[in-house]
Write a structure and sequence with these properties.
The protein contains two helices and no strands. With about 45 residues, it is mostly helical. The chain has one domain. The longest helix is centred in the N-terminal third of the chain and has 22 residues. It is flat, with a radius of gyration of 14 Å.
Length: about 45
């Protein structure tokens, strides 16, 4: 039961993020690019 609830919450969060990025696709590209830069810097 708990697993199903956590899965539902996870799906909800993903849909919210997708909705944000569909509205502003440039933002998605920027975030991914920024994340790659950060992971390179931490190594």
């Amino acid at each position: 039961m708990r697993f199903i609830l956590s899965l539902a919450v996870f799906i909800c969060v993903i849909f919210q993020l997708l909705a944000k990025y569909i509205k502003n696709p440039y933002n998605m590209i920027y975030v991914i690019h920024n994340h790659e830069k950060k992971s390179e810097g931490s190594l």
